[in-house]
Specification:
This protein is of the alpha+beta class. Helix content is about 35%, strand content about 20%. Strands 9-10-11-17-18-23 form a six-stranded mixed beta sheet, with helices on both faces. A five-stranded antiparallel beta sheet has the order 4-5-6-7-8. Strands 15-16-12-22-19 form a five-stranded antiparallel beta sheet. The longest helix is centred in the first third of the chain and has 19 residues. The two termini are about 45 Å apart. The relative contact order is 0.14.
């Protein structure tokens, strides 16, 4: 009990400190954006609070309700005057992030994004970048300094390390549990520059420090149009892009095979794979694996961010025993009415009528839980496949591994002796809140919040800390050279491990 109380107190304090950091929200310069009336913004804030509280089934999985309530009260106090949309976004985005659920999205209105991209006074860090682990590298130079070499590692931006910057801008979007790796992975390309602007506002000049360079460098911020022009002018000609099949199977040698499942989306597989369905691909691949008596199988889900429910279980069925993979699948409520007393009430609904009546049961607290034997049910899979694999399994994972990709990883980590290689998954080991995500458009700011309705609580063995994803047995972060050459660093490591070439 004492430990639980301390955790709750710590989270409450962190929440308050987080929001106090935004008390200077009026200090940022976001350009000449129109102001929204204070009371209307407070009305939007109330609808957001009700939406997360009444409809989000996993809202309080990691963050206690009292902490969330305190955070919303503090946010309300921060709205002391009329604000522009990005000032308001900076206040409410961390509230959405308190869900600690990556399926809970917040989106700036498209009209404003188009405006930001065209206003010359709004300026950005003029690079595309990538984080390899927590190290930040320039991948494209869009600055006016054509002599600035690409692929440099940035060690400081205006006196802050990249890690310090990510700890701030990472509060503007949710990730599962306490997983940090995805905060870095999501900053690839121009996203880092955009989120830097969303948090810090327009910055006219960036003082940059680089690894192995003794002198700092001043780089002028630029509007997006100029950055894109510079990047296009300096772009190197590359060979024609070759489309990659979402489902790939290779025999490496007489003892080792490799399968790559980049998605669990039925529609993506139908359009982007010669096999058209995951079921056909797995049946084909595992028959060959069985016929050739393959001893080592590498399963690559490092680029799999999920898709249709059930496909993760279909893949798992070739490795593990059937069991109840979900302790429960629940919706907090079937319907939620959001009413701030000013605007037209908003209704959010979870299930369709037939699915609700046939596949769920209503609990005493008003929530709905999936029945064990109906519809998709709670089991890992529906049918035992032919040609199950009994050799050594190596699973490749990354911060892109998410949702269904993470659920497959969770089952394999919990129920089998598979060896995991790569980086921590983006999806929580305990499960996720996804499914039937409903869009809440705040009436005055027009900011969109996507609130997931179904909480999937996985039946996993307590092998990992609460709030983590699946952690690899062997952590592998690509080198810059491997990244630039598009080499699969985890696959290279796995083959070395199989061949006893790892120290």
């Amino acid at each position: 009990m004492q430990t639980t109380t301390l955790i709750t107190l710590r989270k409450t304090i962190l929440t308050i400190l987080l929001l106090l950091a935004y008390s200077n929200v009026n200090a940022q310069d976001y350009g000449n954006l129109p102001l929204l009336e204070k009371q209307k913004l407070k009305g939007d804030l109330e609808l957001l609070h009700q939406g997360l509280d009444k409809f989000h089934s996993g809202m309080y999985w990691y963050t206690p309700k009292d902490s969330v309530d305190i955070a919303f009260r503090n946010a309300n106090d921060l709205i002391k005057t009329n604000l522009n949309l990005l000032q308001f976004h900076k206040i409410i985005a961390p509230l959405v992030a308190l869900s600690r659920e990556d399926h809970t999205d917040i989106k700036i209105p498209k009209e404003l994004l188009k405006k930001i991209d065209t206003i010359q006074q709004i300026k950005f860090l003029p690079f595309t970048v990538v984080f390899l682990g927590d190290k930040l590298y320039i991948t494209r130079n869009g600055s006016d300094n054509s002599g600035l070499e690409e692929n440099l590692e940035i060690t400081k931006i205006n006196g802050e390390t990249p890690q310090q910057v990510v700890s701030k801008i990472g509060t503007l979007f949710a990730s599962d549990g306490y997983i940090k790796s995805v905060k870095y992975a999501d900053m690839e390309g121009f996203s880092f520059s955009r989120y830097y602007y969303y948090y810090y506002g327009t910055t006219n000049e960036f003082k940059l420090e680089f690894k192995d360079h003794s002198q700092s460098m001043a780089v002028q911020a630029l509007p997006i149009v100029t950055i894109q022009k510079n990047v296009d002018q300096r772009a190197k000609k590359s060979s024609a892009h070759v489309e990659s099949d979402y489902l790939q199977f290779k025999i490496i040698d007489s003892e080792t095979a490799y399968i790559d499942i980049q998605t669990f989306s039925n529609s993506e597989i139908k359009q982007g794979s010669q096999f058209k369905t995951l079921k056909k691909f797995l049946k084909y691949s595992f028959k060959i694996i069985n016929d050739k008596k393959i001893k080592n199988l590498i399963v690559d889900v490092s680029q799999n961010s999920g898709g249709n429910e059930g496909n993760e279980g279909l893949l798992y069925s070739y490795f593990g025993n059937n069991y109840q993979k979900y302790l429960k699948v629940r919706a907090k409520t079937q319907k939620a009415l959001l009413d701030n007393g000013i605007d037209k009430p908003i209704k959010l609904k979870a299930y369709g009528l037939l699915e609700r009546l046939i596949t769920t049961k209503r609990m005493k607290d008003g929530s709905l839980e999936r029945k064990a034997g109906m519809g998709l049910g709670l089991k890992a899979f529906k049918k035992e496949p032919e040609n199950k694999f009994n050799g050594k399994t190596y699973v490749l994972i990354s911060p892109v591994t998410y949702s269904g990709g993470s659920e497959f990883s969770n089952m394999m980590y919990s129920q089998t002796k598979a060896t995991f290689i790569g980086q921590e998954t983006a999806g929580g080991y305990l499960g996720n809140t996804s499914g039937y995500s409903r869009k809440l458009t705040l009436p005055h700011s027009k900011i969109e919040i996507y609130i997931p309705a179904l909480q999937f609580i996985m039946n996993v063995k307590p092998k990992l800390p609460i709030g983590s994803g699946v952690k690899p047995h062997y952590k592998v972060i690509p080198t810059l050279e491997q990244y630039l050459k598009n080499e699969n660093a985890s696959l290279i490591f796995a083959l070395k491990l199989i061949n006893d070439e790892v120290d």
